[in-house]
Write a structure and sequence with these properties.
The protein is mostly helical. It has one domain (18-421): Up-down Bundle (Growth Hormone, Chain: A). The chain contains 16 helices and 2 strands. It has helices spanning 40-54, 59-66, 68-75, 79-96, 99-107, 109-126, 137-165, 170-199, 202-207, 210-225, 245-274, 279-305, 311-330, 336-360, 365-397, 401-421; strands at 28-29, 233-234. It has a two-stranded antiparallel sheet with strand order 1-2. Keywords: Membrane, Transmembrane, Transmembrane helix. This is CP family cyanate transporter-like MFS transporter. The chain crosses the membrane at residues 43-68, 80-100, 112-129, 135-158, 170-193, 205-225, 246-269, 281-300, 312-330, 336-360, 372-393, 399-419.
Length: 428
């Protein structure tokens, strides 16, 4: 038994997050076939595996930030190393994104996802290792880089596999997949410090996250290796996004939201701890803020698609995010739950509407896939400069006040480009 052969070609979102799933293999000839499973139970098992893969794609970022002060102090990390460790994985999301469709054409999406989960598990195991005579830094750098590369491949291929294999359950599977992504970041933020407290060392807290990745790897292994990939060729289709002003406006909008999004994962917990909040409470606050992102991500796409253009919603959620981030740094700590709640709702909505622009600004699935690739390659590459600048500003000033000003600027720029991208125009 196999899922239906293809999803509907209409890419315009009507409601919910499921419609923003983009098939990175849309240009393949012959067309990529659904994953081969023999029973309905096998199809359910496949769905569980795909959701569990999504549940492992953000713990890398939020778990490290939850114990960043402990790692820095115990491992004796220099300032530049902290900046690199918070920046490199996001940069690699952009660097490795273009390779995912190429690898899928050669080996099949399922086997590439399996290989990515193997690399992710290895990276999580390597990350806390103390190399005799060299300390923790080489393993931290190597493991973090491996994780970033693996997540990049999953980011690109997983949405298309979900859309291809579950066309008649797209609302359910799309919702579960996007919820799993947000839950991944929330779990990393909320549980890492308690594991550190229980185990007594940050290495155990980071090693803990290799366990769920290894479980998913073992579950997905027999299903993925049974697939028989067919060599595919790339076919031209869709508009040239690189020459489109609309595509660049959408991509810059995406890059600016990524600057804020990954800075939340990397730096919000250290910011809260710098303000005197204990590690456990800081992790809980970040976790709740990320959970609120789920609410924003569910509501915003359907709301955005109801209007002829998205200028107002893009501007509002961008200003909410930048303002919430700045207030988390400057606002009274008595209201810190309010500031981080505002940040969470704004960021979840901002990320979702930025992704929704892929569908609303393109006329066909091929152009949507090309715009998605452009947004991931350029967007994550530029987006990593957010974590880089926060780290450098903190290193230079010894505090996070300059970062608060930075995110007021970034939020304002996101509002400007969101306004431009929100106009009712199409790529090509």
């Amino acid at each position: 038994m196999t899922p239906a052969s293809s999803a509907p070609k209409n890419t315009k979102p009507h409601s919910g997050v499921a419609e923003i799933l983009v098939d990175a293999e849309i240009d393949e000839l012959p067309a990529a076939e659904p994953t081969q499973v023999k029973t309905r139970g096998g199809l359910v098992f496949l769905g569980i595996c795909l959701v569990l893969i999504g549940l492992n794609l953000r713990t890398v970022f939020s778990s490290f930030s939850a114990v960043l002060p402990e790692v820095t102090a115990d491992a004796g990390l220099p300032g530049w190393a902290v900046v690199v460790l918070t920046t490199v994985p996001v940069t690699l999301l952009g660097v490795f994104a273009p390779l995912a469709p190429i690898l899928a054409r050669r080996f099949g999406a399922e086997r590439v996802l399996l290989g990515a989960m193997a690399v992710l598990t290895a990276g999580l195991l390597i990350r806390p290792v103390d190399l005799a005579g060299a300390g923790h830094l080489p393993a931290l750098l190597t493991g973090t880089a491996a994780c970033g590369a693996a997540i990049a491949l999953c980011n690109v291929l997983l949405p298309g596999v979900v859309k291809r294999d579950f066309p008649h359950r797209l609302g359910l599977m799309g919702g579960l997949y996007t919820t799993a992504i947000c839950a991944s970041a929330a779990l990393g933020a909320g549980f890492t410090y308690p594991v550190f407290t229980a185990a007594g060392h940050w290495t155990s807290a980071l090693w803990f996250w290799a366990l769920p990745a290894a479980v998913v790897l073992l579950l997905f292994l027999p299903l993925a290796i049974r697939q028989h990939p067919v060599r595919h060729n790339a076919a031209d289709g869709g508009a040239n996004v690189w020459r489109s002003a609309v595509a660049w406006q959408v991509t810059i909008f995406m890059a600016l939201q990524a600057m804020m999004s990954f800075s939340v994962f990397a730096w919000l917990a250290p910011i809260l701890r710098d303000r005197g909040i204990d590690g456990g409470t800081a992790g809980l606050i970040v976790s709740v803020s990320i959970v609120l992102q789920m609410l924003g991500s569910f509501v915003a796409p359907g709301l955005a698609a109801r209007f002829k253009d998205q200028r107002v919603i893009n501007t509002v959620v961008a200003l909410m995010t930048g303002g919430g981030f700045a207030l988390s740094i400057f606002g009274p700590t008595d209201l810190i739950w309010v500031w981080t709640g505002l940040l969470g709702l704004g960021q979840g909505s901002l990320t979702a509407v930025a992704l929704t622009m892929i569908m609303l600004r393109t006329r066909d699935s091929h152009t949507a896939a090309h715009l998605s690739g452009m947004m991931q390659g350029v967007g994550y590459g530029l987006g990593s400069t957010g974590t880089l600048m926060v780290g450098q500003l903190h290193q230079a000033t010894g505090g996070f006040a300059a970062a608060g000003i930075l995110f007021l600027v970034v939020g304002s720029l996101a509002a400007f480009f969101g306004f431009r991208a929100g106009r009712n125009r199409y790529v090509g």
